[in-house]
Amino acid sequence: MAAKYYVVWKGRQTGIFTTWAQCQTQVDKFAGARFKSYPSLAEAEAAFGGKSIGNSGGSAAKAYKAMGSNTTGRKTVKKPKAAALTQEQITEMPFNIKIFTDGACEPNPGEAGTGIAIYKDNQLSELWYGLYHPMGTNNTAELNGLHQAFMMAQEKLAQGLSVAIYCDSMYSIQCITQWASGWEKKGWVRQGGEIKNLELIKLMYALYLQIQSKVTIYHVNGHVGIEGNELADRMSIIAIESQQQSLNLYRESYDIDEILASRRG
User: Could you tell me the CA-to-CA distances from 115 to 5, 96, 106, 146, 191 in Å, in that order?
Assistant: First the structure.
């Protein structure tokens, strides 16, 4: 499994840690804990403000040294791609609220819809579907889902709850967390062509800036058995079938097996 680095901004001890166990020790049941994982030490250090690994050269730093350097002379050894999150790993994450988003389009472009599944303390609490468009795209449907997740996260944060968002669209995540800042600096243009979904991305980025230090966003693979992602997917299909343009709370029975047995996107 590829190495990961965990930045803890607020916890029993702050710093950069090299294992989830070390990070969890600092943040589990710690009120208002703030932390996030990164695939490389450079990204973790940048996020932590350029500080080196560990809070004061403690166990985390020792653990990193034991792993060895990732360079040979002047050549950097490419790290393997981080392993995909599993259901077990997601369940173990100590967030009060976990929001899963998904979008579907049949065909692409074509009829599009969005779905959301919300868990509170690892128990399914809300299902949402809607934002139907008769001639949409999969990317727009996914962006709509992440946008709604941001708004829902903001409400949950106001209640003093910790929040994580899980999205299977790397495009949507990168648009907001990586590319949007550069586009904004350049006047919302990009070299090589137009920025698709620009107005939606502008709205999302403005909201993201308000919550980015308090919310952790994870990419998950679709259709690999992660319950929240699968439920959000089924909601996106219900959005298409019902042609609901507004976002609606799913009011049928929350029989998870029955919902999962329905048509998927």
Answer: 31, 20, 14, 10, 32
Q: What is the C-alpha to C-alpha distance for residues 205 and 61, in angstroms, rounded to an integer? A: 34
Domain count, the chain: 2
Whether residue 74 lies inside any domain: the answer is: no
Q: Give CA angle at 39 (38, 40), nearest 5°.
A: 95
| CATH code (residue 235) | 3.30.420.10
Residues 40 and 141 in one domain: no
Q: Residue 92 — φ and ψ, nearest 5°?
A: -75, -15
Q: What is the pTM of this model?
A: 0.72
Q: Tell which residue, 45, 46, 44, 37, has the closest CA to residue 19.
A: 37
Is residue 234 within 8 Å of 100, Cβ to Cβ? no
Q: 127-147, pLDDT tens digit by residue?
A: 999 999 999 999 999 999 999
What residue numbers bound the domain in which 106 lies?
87-261
Within a domain: 109: yes
- CA atoms of 232 and 224, how far apart (whole Å): 13
